[in-house]
Write a structure and sequence with these properties.
The structure is a homodimer. By secondary structure, the first copy, chain A, is mostly helical. Chain A has a single domain (6-67), classed as 434 Repressor (Amino-terminal Domain) (Orthogonal Bundle), CATH 1.10.260. Chain A has five helices and two strands, in the order βαααααβ. Chain A starts with 5 loop residues before the first strand and ends in an 8-residue tail after the last strand. At the A-B interface, α4 of A face α4 of B. Chain B binds a DNA duplex through α3.
Chain lengths: 76, 76
Amino acid sequence: MAKLPFTNDIRTLRFLAGEMTQAELGEKIGVTRQTIAAIEQGKYSPSLEAAFRIAHIFGKPLEEVFLWDTESGDAD
Amino acid sequence: MAKLPFTNDIRTLRFLAGEMTQAELGEKIGVTRQTIAAIEQGKYSPSLEAAFRIAHIFGKPLEEVFLWDTESGDAD
DNA sequence: ACATAATGTTAGATATATTTAACATTAAGT
DNA sequence: ACTTAATGTTAAATATATCTAACATTATGT
């Protein structure tokens, strides 16, 4: 199972977007509220498409919504 | 099935990285060469984690490796 | 106290990503 | 002509994301 190598700011961004609800966000990008809840809590790695759509809703670049943990192996 | 809302530049980036092979890239990020081939050809939407790892290998921001098609619904 | 809306959570089903293994094709080197 | 390395492609298996449905919790409003 292993912890994800990134975190996300969805909760904060929903708050800043006038307390947008998980259900609303889900409707906008075409997934259920349970899926939003799971992504928000870092329970799994969403599809790139879902991640892009979430970022676009908030008008932010993907890498400002999902933040890679430096420390997580691989590149550099 | 439906077409993906983004393209990618992996093929070019492999070329620029000294003809890095699909198999090499796969090893570096921990997936098989068949998976790299499928992602490269846009056969499906990879996990956000896989997408991040690929971008990191090339030292590029994710949104420079995977390019959202304007035209693809949703935000703004 | 009661209702309602938002969120947390979970089990079971379905869809999709990824693996493994095998075979075909193309280009490069000998 | 023969190898070898890289890529394309496919079928079947496995892992993981996502859906549906249900129930619990917390806060807000009446």
